[in-house]
């Protein structure tokens, strides 16, 4: 694990827009650490985002560590940028955009339909003791003990059967009180090329459902050449709409979880829509991209990198002796790393230190490493750590070396546009929406966390002591 030094921590902190002592009202949550216009950001929000990451292999820093606090500050800066774009989108009236409103309405309908199905149509499916005993007598082999595990298995089976029975004919129950008419001719695959988005494909209680509203769902779910499948897909869409309408009639829109999910979707969707429109509005002629590349080569070019295995010895003589034994096949390079290397990690990683970039190591060691062919043993060469034997396991060529290459041009253009977006949001901070970061609140909370963890560790250690 790479430790991030205090200077980097402070650098991240000072890149935030404005840092002031806290000025929070007594009615607000105590862990609010930033404010962007009328939007607030709390430490608990940030920690939820960090802890809920589902990316496989992602390292999540532990609470109470400097790495955790650095991650928090980095994420805080991203959340501030997102809030600035959100407020800017509202100010420009983007929330009135028909595309955005359709997306929100679809999301709301999906969540409400799901709630209605769960709470009304499916509901709780209880299993009584009498039902368990009856199933046990009729279906379980004689002599089988009715243990707790067997009972749980029987309950699950009965509940599954009940769920299946309840689902049968659900569409009829959903549509009770509603009149549904499907216009089959407007679903015919052969008419897709001439069919207008305003074409009426169905009516629900005389409310028209248009082809443009359901086209993507119907064609994606059913393919292009089956009227029957299209009608089935449309039926599902109509059932979802009716369940959503009934959910609204039942007051499900007041459900706190529903409101939280919808508000989060609205905000995230509006930010993404606004970001996309801003990026499309930026010009990036080839001459500007070329100039940007010339000024930012260090950020753009990916230097050659090599996957390296290494053995480190105390003296040159030891290194030369080990090299001879490896070359004569008296021992493998893995055995040399495990049994003789003075690198403290060698016994665990067998000398495999991973991918290294050209120009990032000690000069003589770097020169040797990037002069070797794949699977060739090189050295010994000296560094402050000792005498090194090096083997290159794999090679990745340098990338983005020529701006005339299409991939390099495209990647550079993306970087240029995102730099312009960063400047755009920086101007929002300065000119439109005040940004305040409460340094004292953040410091107090992370200090309390660290002290609590230390106290708990001390208590755990004391409990481990004998008698």
Please, could you describe this protein's structure?
This protein is an alpha+beta fold and 467 residues long. Among the domains are: 6-75 and 436-449, no CATH class; 122-249, no CATH class; 303-396, Chitinase A, domain 3 (Roll), CATH 3.10.50.40. It has 18 helices and 11 strands. It has helices at residues 6-14, 43-51, 66-91, 98-122, 129-139, 148-167, 170-174, 211-222, 227-249, 256-281, 286-295, 297-300, 316-327, 333-340, 346-349, 363-369, 406-431, 439-464, and strands spanning 19-20, 32-36, 39-42, 180-182, 200-204, 207-210, 305-313, 352-357, 377-383, 386-396, 435-438. A 4-stranded mixed sheet has the order 1-11-2-3. Strands 8-7-10-9 form a 4-stranded antiparallel sheet. A 3-stranded antiparallel sheet has the order 4-5-6. A hairpin with a 2-residue loop joins strand 2 (32-36) and strand 3 (39-42). Helix 3 crosses helix 10 (256-281), helix 3 crosses helix 17 and helix 11 (286-295) crosses helix 17. It is extended, with a radius of gyration of 32 Å. The model is unreliable at 1-22 (pLDDT under 50).
Summarize the structure.
The protein is α+β, with helices and mostly antiparallel strands. It has helices at residues 6-14, 43-51, 66-91, 98-122, 129-139, 148-167, 170-174, 211-222, 227-249, 256-281, 286-295, 297-300, 316-327, 333-340, 346-349, 363-369, 406-431, 439-464; strands spanning 19-20, 32-36, 39-42, 180-182, 200-204, 207-210, 305-313, 352-357, 377-383, 386-396, 435-438. The protein is 56% helix and 13% strand.
């Amino acid at each position: 694990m790479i430790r991030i030094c205090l200077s980097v921590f402070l650098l991240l902190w000072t890149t935030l827009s404005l840092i002031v002592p806290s000025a929070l009202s007594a009615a607000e949550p105590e862990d609010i650490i930033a404010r962007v216009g009328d939007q607030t950001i709390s430490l608990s929000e940030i920690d939820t985002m960090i802890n809920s990451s589902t990316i496989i292999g992602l390292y999540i820093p532990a609470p109470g560590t400097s790495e955790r606090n650095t991650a928090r500050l980095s994420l805080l800066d991203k959340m501030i940028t997102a809030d600035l774009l959100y407020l800017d989108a509202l100010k420009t009236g983007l929330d009135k955009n028909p595309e955005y409103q359709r997306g929100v309405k679809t999301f709301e309908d999906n969540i409400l339909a799901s709630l209605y199905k769960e709470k009304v149509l499916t509901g709780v499916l209880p299993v009584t003791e009498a039902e368990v005993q009856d199933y046990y007598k009729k279906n379980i082999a004689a002599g089988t003990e009715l243990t707790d595990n067997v009972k749980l298995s029987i309950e699950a089976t009965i509940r599954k059967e009940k769920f299946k029975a309840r689902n049968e004919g659900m569409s009829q129950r959903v549509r009770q009180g509603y009149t549904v008419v499907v216009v089959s001719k407007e679903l015919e695959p052969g008419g897709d090329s001439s069919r207008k988005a305003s074409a009426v494909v169905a009516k629900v209680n005389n409310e028209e459902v248009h082809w443009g509203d359901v086209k993507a769902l119907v064609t994606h779910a059913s393919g292009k050449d089956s009227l029957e499948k299209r009608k089935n897909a449309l039926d599902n869409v109509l059932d979802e709409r009716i369940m959503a309408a009934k959910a609204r009639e039942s007051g499900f829109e007041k459900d706190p979880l529903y409101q939280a999910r919808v508000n989060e979707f609205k905000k995230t969707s509006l930010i993404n829509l606004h970001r996309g429109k801003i990026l499309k509005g930026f010009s990036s002629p080839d001459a500007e991209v070329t100039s940007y590349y010339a000024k930012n080569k260090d950020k753009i070019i990916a230097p050659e990198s090599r996957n390296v295995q290494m053995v480190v010895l105390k003296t040159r003589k030891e290194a030369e002796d080990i090299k001879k034994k490896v070359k004569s096949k008296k021992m493998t390079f893995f055995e040399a790393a495990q049994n003789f290397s003075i690198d403290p990690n060698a016994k665990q990683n067998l000398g495999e230190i991973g991918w290294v970039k050209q120009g990032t190591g000690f000069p003589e060691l770097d020169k040797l490493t990037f002069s070797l062919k794949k699977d060739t043993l090189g050295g010994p060469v000296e560094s402050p750590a000792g005498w090194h034997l090096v083997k290159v396991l794999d090679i990745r060529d340098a990338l983005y070396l020529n701006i005339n290459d299409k991939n390099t041009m495209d990647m550079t253009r993306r970087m240029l546009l995102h730099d312009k977006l960063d400047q755009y949001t920086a101007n929002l901070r300065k000119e439109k929406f005040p940004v305040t970061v409460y340094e004292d609140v953040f410091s107090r909370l992370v200090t309390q966390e660290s002290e609590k963890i230390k106290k708990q560790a001390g208590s755990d250690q004391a409990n481990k002591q004998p008698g």
